[in-house]
Amino acid sequence: MVSLLDMPDVPMNSILDHGGPSVIFSLRKVCKNLRDYIDETMPELHLDAINICLEYKKITITWSHYLENVQISYKLHGNGYKTVFGENEITIENVDYMEGFWNDYSLIMKYQKSSLKRFHLHLSNSTDVEDVSKFLEQYQNSGTIKTQYLDLGIYHGDEVLVILQHLNANCLKNIRFFSASYYDKNIDFTEIVKLDQWKNANEFSSRNLSIDASMKHFTHFSKINAEFQHIYSEPGNLNVLKEAAIRSPNFEKYIIEYHDSFNVRQTLSEVFGNPFTYSIGQNKWSWFFNTCREEKILKIDNFLMFDIINFSLIDRSMVPNGAEVKNVL
After folding, report:
1. Are 60 and 206 found together in one domain?
2. What's the whole-model pTM score?
3. CB distance 32 to 40 below 8 Å
């Protein structure tokens, strides 16, 4: 029987190229020759996504592959750390848990050559500030990550700039922020909006986060789903959104939430003009505008009950009878 070490390069490389993370890193531990061969050929790992959660003295990472999901945790234990992989537990002495995590992470990422579909990072509100700083310092040294989708759980807000800076600007298409503590308002967008990573992305969304920043920094996104502060106390933001939706050939949909609802409808009427109201009641107001795409109409809906404004495109034939289509081009 031919052993793996005797197998020709072509079938051997095919095995490695189609194996999941468990196969590759189990084979590395079989013997020095296999480890040296794998490290020399550097087979593509083909990971789809990485999910990292930083909690109190613990890091959990999930490597998502089309064949398997591999979850490993690293937790402070005595003067070292304990790593848990499935039903296996290993205790490492005299090594910090974060160092153990980054050693494994750096090794595995050497085998990831293609772009990830998703990079999910959750910095829990139970995490020590010092540990967050250590994590971000190591993150900066770990190299650029290629990912299409950033899903970032924000702890303080200061980490957002650091995370974005080390993502490949040519790959990132979708950005999502969510706050680990409800309505964290500590994000400073001053430097973030200058990044190519921000400017090149197509979609933005947020959860449990009320954003205090000018809408002009968000209008390059084709899709927005987020809550903004001062959307009505600064009505110019509404015009910025309307103009972007009308003139951009890439616009698809904006879902804007708000909470400063005093005199909302008065402000909307001043900005958009008289609304179209529906016979079913006054909860929904709508406005219609011609766009740069002749066959498409911008429809703006305000749902007072839900504190939401929707900006969307509809076919001209879908405009209700009696509704005015405004022309601002």
Report:
1. yes
2. 0.86
3. no
Token representation of residue 15: 């095995």
Distances (CA, A) of 273 to 30, 268, 276, 285: 72, 7, 10, 11
In this structure, of 17-21, 154-158, 248-252, the range with the lowest mean pLDDT score is 17-21
Same structural domain, 258 and 159: no
Which tens digit of pLDDT belongs to each residue from 35-79? 777 777 777 788 999 999 999 999 999 999 888 898 999 999 999
Q: How far apart are CA 201 and CA 173, in angstroms?
A: 4
- Same-domain status, 263 and 315: yes
What's the alpha-carbon Rg for the chain, to the nearest Å? Answer: 25
Average pLDDT across the chain, whole number: 86
> Residue 178: which domain range?
46-213
In degrees, rounded to 5, the angle at the alpha carbon of residue 314 between the alpha carbons of residues 309 and 318 is: 110
Residue environment code for 62-93, b if the CB has 16+ CB neighbours within 10 A, otherwise e: ebbbeeeebebbbbbbeebbbbeeeeeeeebe
Q: Give yes or no for residue 308 having a pLDDT over 80.
A: yes
* DSSP 8-state code for residue 222: S
Domain count, the chain: 3
Q: 238 with 319, same domain?
A: yes
What token pair was written down for 131? Answer: 């540990």
Look up tokens 């490695």; give the residue: 16
Give the separation between CA 304 and CA 215, rounded to whole angstroms.
Answer: 21
Whether 154 and 52 share a structural domain: yes
> How deeply is 211 buried, as exposed, middle or buried, from its count of CB atoms within 10 A (0-12, 13-18, 19+)?
buried
Interval 230-255: pLDDT, tens? 776 677 888 999 999 999 999 999 99
